[in-house]
Amino acid sequence: MRFADVKEAVPGMSDRLLSTRLKELERAGLVNREVHAGARVRVTYGLTSKGDSLKPVMGAMRDWARRWHAA
Fold it and tell me: Would you list the DSSP string of 11-70?
């Protein structure tokens, strides 16, 4: 995903805070940052296998929040 795509997926977060969090996730080995050279440098982010392994956990947390938010 490009930075703008990530920002759209996480509404309400400033560019600076999102950039800081992405760097932290990269240092933790959860996110991979790729720089694509060209006329315009393009940067994309993706989950590493370690980050991908958190999907079931995050899904369970989302389901729990949805269930108990209305309670």
Answer: TT--HHHHHHHHHHHHHTTSEEEEEE-SSS-EEEEEE-HHHHTTHHHHHHHHHHHHHHH-
Neighbours of 31 (CB within 10 A): 20
Predicted model pTM: 0.81
Is residue 71 very low, low, confident or very high in pLDDT (cuts 50, 70, 90)? low
User: What residues does 2 pair with on adjacent strands?
Assistant: 44
Are the C-beta atoms of residues 15 and 7 closer than 8 Å to each other?
yes
Amino acid identity for residue 35 in this structure: V
Q: Could you read off the pLDDT of 38-64 as tens digits, one per residue?
A: 899 999 999 999 999 999 999 999 999
End-to-end Cα, the chain, rounded Å: 35
Domains contained in the chain, CATH given:
3-69 (1.10.10.10)
